[in-house]
Amino acid sequence: MESLEATVQLLSSMGELVDDPQFHSTLDGAALLALYRDMVLVRQLDQQATALQRQGELGLWAPLLGQEAAQIGSARAMQAQDYVFSTYREHGVAWCRGVDPVDMLRFWRGTAHQAWDANLHRFYGYQVIIGAHVLHATGYAMGMSKDGRTGTGDLEKDQAVVAYFGDGAMSEGDVNEAFVFATSFQSPVVFFCQNNQWAISEPTRRQSVVPLAQRAQGFGMPGIRVDGNDVIACHAVTMAALDRARAGKGPTLIEAFTYRMGAHTTSDDPTKYRDSADDELWRSRDPIDRLRIYLRAQEILNEKVESELASEAAYLAERMRVSCRELADPNPLTMFDHVYSGPDARLERQRLEVEAILADQETKVN
Amino acid sequence: MESLEATVQLLSSMGELVDDPQFHSTLDGAALLALYRDMVLVRQLDQQATALQRQGELGLWAPLLGQEAAQIGSARAMQAQDYVFSTYREHGVAWCRGVDPVDMLRFWRGTAHQAWDANLHRFYGYQVIIGAHVLHATGYAMGMSKDGRTGTGDLEKDQAVVAYFGDGAMSEGDVNEAFVFATSFQSPVVFFCQNNQWAISEPTRRQSVVPLAQRAQGFGMPGIRVDGNDVIACHAVTMAALDRARAGKGPTLIEAFTYRMGAHTTSDDPTKYRDSADDELWRSRDPIDRLRIYLRAQEILNEKVESELASEAAYLAERMRVSCRELADPNPLTMFDHVYSGPDARLERQRLEVEAILADQETKVN
Amino acid sequence: MTELSIVQALNRGLRCAMESDPKVLLMGEDIGKLGGVFRVTEGLQKDFGEDRVIDAPLAESGIVGTAIGLALYGYRPVIEIQFDGFVYPAFDQIIVQLARMRYRSAGVLQLPITIRMPFGGGIGSVEHHGESPEAYFASTPGLRVVTCANPVDAYWMIQQAIASDDPVIFLEPKRRYWQKGEVDLSETLTSVPSMYQAKVLVEGSDCTIICYGPTVATSLHAAALAAQDGVSLEVIDLRTLSPLDLVTMEKSVKKTGRAVVVHEASSSGGIGGEVGQCLTESCFYYLQAPVLRVTGYDTPYPPSRIEDVYLPDVDRILDAVEKSMSY
Amino acid sequence: MTELSIVQALNRGLRCAMESDPKVLLMGEDIGKLGGVFRVTEGLQKDFGEDRVIDAPLAESGIVGTAIGLALYGYRPVIEIQFDGFVYPAFDQIIVQLARMRYRSAGVLQLPITIRMPFGGGIGSVEHHGESPEAYFASTPGLRVVTCANPVDAYWMIQQAIASDDPVIFLEPKRRYWQKGEVDLSETLTSVPSMYQAKVLVEGSDCTIICYGPTVATSLHAAALAAQDGVSLEVIDLRTLSPLDLVTMEKSVKKTGRAVVVHEASSSGGIGGEVGQCLTESCFYYLQAPVLRVTGYDTPYPPSRIEDVYLPDVDRILDAVEKSMSY
Ligand SMILES: Cc1ncc(C[n+]2csc(CCOP(=O)(O)OP(=O)(O)O)c2C)c(N)n1
Ligand SMILES: Cc1ncc(C[n+]2csc(CCOP(=O)(O)OP(=O)(O)O)c2C)c(N)n1
Ligand SMILES: [Mg+2]
Ligand SMILES: [Mg+2]
């Protein structure tokens, strides 16, 4: 891959700060520690969910392992008034938007399609259809412009949207159409592509022969390639793109170059299609390790804080374990709710039918 | 619009040859005269069809007025072994592929959906669904590679595909997906976008904030912007792109910057949405006029040749007029043919039903 | 009473909806200065501005997808798809996203989007300009599908569709666009019948003709001719294809004992089959004959010079009635 | 006889087709090294190369659209759509281009493309992994739609589909993928019954059960239970949804006088309605009861923890039989 533009990096994989001509971080020690905490907890969340799936408590889980920096760095760059559209893998983003991990599990356990109030968290939820939500994000951003909720000059209030998707999604018509709409209407949306180098078993080169960030130029918007395992850089470039969006200057495409350290989902077996050498290489670039090295060196992080964090993580895991098992199956009759805004004669008949069947089963059981 | 790359021009609108650092024409006087003849005849064809529509002989017609250079220049750059996929407006390209103008009329008169043998002419036919055929073109080109019919080094035999579409089509998901596939598989396809500045009533800026040729870079292929009213330049850039494709170096996007001098179709009324000042400006850039000026100046063209050409055009028009009126309606029973490769019980029943109805009508009439 | 064509009635209806709710906006291809290829949105961009009457990029999935985003933000988008044949690129957004958003969010999110679409054949145009895709939508849970057949319904139903909190596919019978009728503009949106109710246009006792959109005029014509021959047809304009107004149909069929469904779409998998099956389930003992179908044939839409043979006409309807009566 | 699961039978069938015709190639997401998420194409890329087993970019419209180009060039592409729920972005290419190419070219061009798709629910997975989109395709003129319910049919029908000069939508019942059966590999493609024929799996006299794909196993189970209660059910595996094999169904219904159609897809606009209407048209005087439907409900597919209630089960089939018998 010819590299059109340099990859932005502010923290090397050795845990050392590096300079970038264009992007700078404003994060102080406390802020960095907070990001570290997020990453550690989110990795715990992910591991616990993976374990719950193995134990048969979830139907499926899509691990974020390795993508913590990309997700936490970008999500912590947002403000409360922003709105997020994501895929099935953005548990870290969901976490930053205040979604309870137990609610995340509902989707994967099969007790609900969407288990939280999207408007409350300003987090739309898991989208499984690759790329479809990127158009929704763009339309939402168009609405912000229309209502004058962006571009007023007050960066504390001006709104913007972030749309998450993967390297595979870059090939879908919907994503490219979103680029068309966002540039045509100069909408306040940041396209955040986590290039984890794989779309299930397909390497990114199947989707593109040039770096994905370069796609942006074709549509007339800035494209930034960032080290996706560098939480500081991810935070900085997302801040910059959000500021630009808020200021009414239109969309940006960010390609966070990272690596899916685990399987695509718990149903997947990556040994079938990729080299374990890659896994090792990328383990040495672990996004959490490098921040830890830096924070330890700076003495922002010490044994005591680490062990407090470890207990917090353990507590989170425990809560997930217990609560997941307690997640009740929905009443089957809810199947008929919310198909339409009002009652529907045919659905009412079918609901009665199911009611009778359930009552009958009840009787048989007793 | 910020212009990423210069627009290739070899013949100015004053009819003077100009140099381009990269592209050169190999056309001699006879070849240029042949292009001139094509353009004159195709314009006649177009005007005659428009007239026939006005007279109620056609249901609709999409005029190519103003786009003769883009179509003839590019189409004459192809070889017999190439294959073409086009929209509803490429009558000039169809002409170059040897399609009888009367067969073109069948579609617009409503006597057939596709009235010629696509494989015979290696010209796929009119595609109305914006962008859909650009994927077909890409797949066809993938087939050429697979069969080793391209990239052998023999430019006389190596095959390539040209896909025509408009500025509006650049927004469709299918066209962008075609760019993905063509670059991913390095397929021998030339994407020829006639930017006639309008998609019905919508100006190109609604589709893109940067020149359309720039889209190519986002996908990792060369993009060339050419003066679409300069038949020599259109020929030269298409030749270059085709040679590249044949040589196995992959796809190219050409944006031929031109102007739709007429209405979108005979159903359209452009006065509703565009300025007549533009019309005048572009009349002064007429693709036929400028070649005429040059050829007259070079004495390749003279009164005698012009008048011979005029009679040839008049003859063409006359033949179209007469033959169009003679185009019989299809037998309604053909409606049931070719839905499937073999017989279908339900369609057979329906065919019998129609047969009975028609017989009945026959009886009533007699 | 004001005489309006269907196009004019739709235009007025859109205008009313935009006046009464600032969140209503229009999106589509060529709907601005041009006013749409059928001029349904004529003059609206001039009066409501480019921010509310939006000429969108040429990308149907993009139009529906961004409209979904706009609706999530609080807008009430009304989309124009230029022709029936061009809706398919938006299919995923319509079927998977638009139809299911309320359900998947357990009622938290709603998408009050109307998708207007000219449909049906008979205008002598080229390929893809004469389609009847209604069954794809009507069979999709979460969507509502309605169609108007005259200026009165055009005027009121478009406003009802826009006011609905459910996504509505609003089908406009393109070859009847210029059909005129008297519309009483002084009524109110709530006083006119719900768009989810079928209408008995002609009462009769021998056989029920069930039709919608472009075939309503044909069916009325057939009923008039049948009356001359002493056959009394009841004509029902379905108006709503999802939900089907079974109550109105059943009442009629229980009276006449016979029914013929008329539509331009192909027979297989069309609305006629669903209507027939539903009526057979609920009126089994009343039916003197199977519900019959008069429809377009099971082929793609043919070249326009033979479309008249493809489209249901008065003769085919009367033949079906005769066949039904002969059971 | 060789014992194979449906997955294995499909894999073998694909291998045979590729061996016997060098123009057959496979396209899809993750079908290469991974062998597809259900492993149907396992090992094929290794043996036939990347040129014939193509991992495509993640773009369904692109996959179908380029396959159309490849077919025009002379190839015989077999596409895998990873899950039913992901087919909709390709809808325009399937419905408007693939289905109609032969027709619009008056037979000059043909597209011998097979689109394989796992379908149906019951695997406990997340949203969009349990859909039954068959009616959209079966109601589209120009497409053929078939589905296998056991390893024998999987093995032969996939080869027949690939050999067909028509575009075929090939539906694979995903929750039955691992169901095993004995396949006689020594038969030949022409000696086995055409994929356009339904099969009477169980003969019976009281009521006909019409099913396909994943509901075949359920229906067989129901028939076995009914037999214990002295009720004789005839079970027909439709196998082909377009064309419908009405001859086989009519013969059965004229004998039993009753029919119940069973499928996972929603009732409205589903195959059941079309089958019911067709049978009512042709067997009106034979039917003792309306054709009844046992189907998924008219909602989007629910969360998996309640999918068992959504899916037709033995009890619901037997209830419907009882209801039919009580007419
Ligand atoms: C429209 C659609 N096609 C196919 C799939 C099946 N699928 C689920 S995830 C995936 C790969 C996505 O890759 P990428 O966009 O890189 O995201 P990642 O999973 O790597 O985060 C595929 C093909 C889908 N969910 N939706
Ligand atoms: C999928 C689809 N959407 C909409 C249309 C209606 N339509 C026909 S031509 C056209 C404009 C096309 O513009 P462009 O691509 O620039 O080509 P041009 O007509 O200018 O040659 C539109 C919107 C269509 N034919 N197909
Ligand atoms: Mg990825
Ligand atoms: Mg144009």
Put the structure in a nutshell:
With 366 residues, chain A is of the alpha/beta class. Chain A is built from 13 helices and 9 strands.
Features:
A: 366 residues; alpha/beta; 2 domains; seven-stranded parallel beta sheet; two-stranded antiparallel ribbon; 45% helix; globular; C: 327 residues; Rossmann fold; seven-stranded mixed beta sheet; 12 helices; 20% strand; binds thiamine diphosphate; binds magnesium ion
Structure notes:
The complex is a heterotetramer, with two copies of chain A (366 residues) and two copies of chain C (327 residues). The mean pLDDT of chain A is 96. In chain A, helix 9 (231-246) links the parallel strand 8 and strand 9 (252-257). With 366 residues, chain A is α/β, with parallel strands linked by helices. Chain A has helices spanning 29-54, 68-75, 91-96, 101-109, 118-121, 132-146, 173-184, 215-219, 231-246, 276-283, 287-297, 303-326, 345-365, and strands spanning 7-8, 83-87, 123-127, 161-166, 189-195, 198-199, 202-203, 223-227, 252-257. In chain A, strands 1-8-9-5-4-2-3 form a seven-stranded parallel β-sheet, sandwiched between helices. In chain C, helix 1 (6-20) packs parallel to helix 7 (151-163), helix 3 (60-73) packs parallel to helix 4 and helix 8 packs across helix 12 (314-325). Chain C has two domains: 2-183, 3-Layer(aba) Sandwich (Rossmann fold), CATH 3.40.50; 199-325, Rossmann fold (3-Layer(aba) Sandwich), CATH 3.40.50. Chain C has a seven-stranded mixed β-sheet with strand order 3-2-4-5-7-6-12, sandwiched between helices. In chain C, strands 9-11-10-13-14 form a five-stranded mixed β-sheet, sandwiched between helices. Chain C has a two-stranded antiparallel ribbon with strand order 1-8. Helix content of chain C is 36%, strand content 20%. At the C-D interface, helix 4, helix 6 and helix 10 of C face helix 4, helix 6 and helix 10 of D. The complex binds thiamine diphosphate (2 copies) and magnesium ion (MG) (2 copies). The site of one magnesium ion (MG) has 6 residues of chain B, from strand 6.
